Amino acid sequence: MELTKEIIVEMMVAEGGDEEQAACLLDGLGEDWRRLMGLEGNREEADKETFEKTMASCGIEAAE
Fold it and tell me: How many CB atoms are located within 10 Å of the residue 25 CB?
């Protein structure tokens, strides 16, 4: 099964996330969302920073 943005949003909501924030995150990550989320390819240090900034801009707090 290929993970689509819609499936990822559903998974995030199932884990207690907010649907709007999840959609915001994926939209904010753009075309590279799979790599930036660590689903494919190699994730670099710059990718982690991009991911964290996008999370913050969508009002998502990182889990401790």
Answer: 24
In terms of Cβ atoms closer than 10 Å to its own Cβ (0-12, 13-18, 19+), residue 55 is middle
**Where are the chain's structural domains?**
5-57
Q: What is the structure's pLDDT at 62?
A: 76
Residue 28 has pLDDT above 80, yes or no: yes
Residue 26, SS3 per DSSP: helix
Buried b (16+ CB within 10 A) or exposed e, 37-54: beeeeeeeeebeebbeeb
Model pTM? 0.83
- More confident site: 2 or 51: 51
